[in-house]
Amino acid sequence: MTLRFSYVWLLPLLEKPYESVQLDLSAALSALEIKRPLPVEISLHELLVTALESDSEYWPQLAIKWLDEGFPVDHKLSELLLQCSSRKTLSQSIRHKAFGFARRWQKLNDHAQHPG
Fold this sequence. Notes:
Layout: H1 18-23, H2 25-32, H3 44-52, H4 58-68, H5 75-85, H6 92-113
């Protein structure tokens, strides 16, 4: 039985700028000083998924900051952002930003699928 790695351990990476983590992921991971084994492949996408699914306001806010800094939105993230936009436990500013990212992604992809 293989246990799935929990990206909760890596949420503090979101406290660093996206570009610095992306450029040197191994150094960013080392700085966390995690004592348990890490997967060979670390997915920053899964990190954002975990953050956006968090019940706290802190991690979704940092995930949205990474989106502001250029992390690419995809279908799964846009769905999670739409869910965040309707969660009353999040502040209005976070809900609005989440909605904006989701709508921009949807509009770009609707236009790409149906040009004209």
